[in-house]
Amino acid sequence: MPLTASDDIVGPAHRAGVGVGAFNVVQLEHAEAIVGGAEAAGRPVVLQISENTVRYHGSLAPIGLAILALARAALTPVAVHLDHAESTDLVHEAVELGFTSVMFDASGLPYEKNVSATREITDHCRARNVWVEAELGEVGGKDGAHAPGVRTDPDEARDFVAATGVDALAVAVGSSHAMATRDAVLDFALITALRDTAGVPLVLHGSSGVADANLVRAVRAGMTKVNVSTHLNRAFTRAARAHLDAHPEAVDPRGYLGPARAAVAVEVTHLLGVLSAGNGG
Predict the structure, then answer these.
(1) How open is the CA angle 86-166-219, to the nearest 5 degrees?
(2) For the residues of 12-32, what is the DSSP string, one character each?
């Protein structure tokens, strides 16, 4: 199957009022699990590599080319996305490698500088048929900065989309990155207001901290792309730890990475079912 454009997954979901799972890849086993889980669910999916993961691996190309190959071989539509990139050079590299979308994060800059920097990225990517996500109203939890009170203003969101030309907008509505508990309190009325004003698909970052029932409510309120990372990492680590606890003599990493990969696949299948229920389907 050829690589699927991100807009060919997110766009139809936005129009249908259902959610799209966008799951972060840390290593190859994550990507294999996510694709396997999506195939089991019969749902499209977005594979994401963050700038932090690129830093962990030392470069984008090896892990990026690997997940592009997995995406092309998948039995369900799979898009490949660069997540939370603050580096313009990294965005350009991802585009050249063949990523179908990028999330450029200039949310830490003053509003006008965020607009200017994001507009440059959008112009570069649009000329190469690459879809662009940006962020307005900083989502807490990045690099230890927990900002639960930050919210995205609907009028500012409308103006930001018009000024930058982005294809999707990550908004701050009560979730936070790297949450290990699923008790985030979302502002569903704000999600609906943002949906009505922004005019592009909304993205929920920090979704690991949101319980299943509230993910359904968030999609019904207007969210489309739902990013999950920490929740899958917890499943991965829990399964690996259980194997190592039961087999303290184990030395072959395949012995514990295999169960960890399987645990993530099961959770991906589950979450994609939850997100497809956003319109009651």
Answers:
(1) 100
(2) HHHHHT--EEEEE-SSHHHHH
- Each residue of 223-240: b (16+ CB within 10 Å) or e? bbbbbbbbbbbebbeebb
The predicted-structure confidence for 155-199, as pLDDT tens digits, reads as follows 999 999 999 999 999 998 875 554 555 556 678 999 999 999 999
Which pLDDT tens digit goes with each residue over 216-229? 999 999 999 999 98
What count of residues does the chain have?
Answer: 281
Q: Are 17 and 112 in contact (CB under 8 A)?
A: no
Report CA dihedral (182, 188, 191, 196) to the nearest 10 degrees.
160
What's the CA gap between 68 and 80, in Å, rounded?
Answer: 7
> Rounded CA gap, 260 and 266, in Å?
10
Tell me the C-alpha to C-alpha distance, in Å, between residue 16 and each of 9, 20, 47, 280: 11, 11, 21, 11
Positive or negative torsion for Cα 34, 35, 36, 41: positive
CA–CA distance, 67 with 62 (Å, rounded to integer) = 9
Cα–Cα distance measured from residue 128 to residue 37, given in angstroms and rounded to the nearest whole number: 30
Neighbours of 73 (CB within 10 A): 11
Which residues are known catalytic residues?
Answer: 83
List the end-to-end C-alpha distance of the chain, in Å, as a whole number: 26
Alpha-carbon gap, residue 232 to 40, rounded angstroms: 16
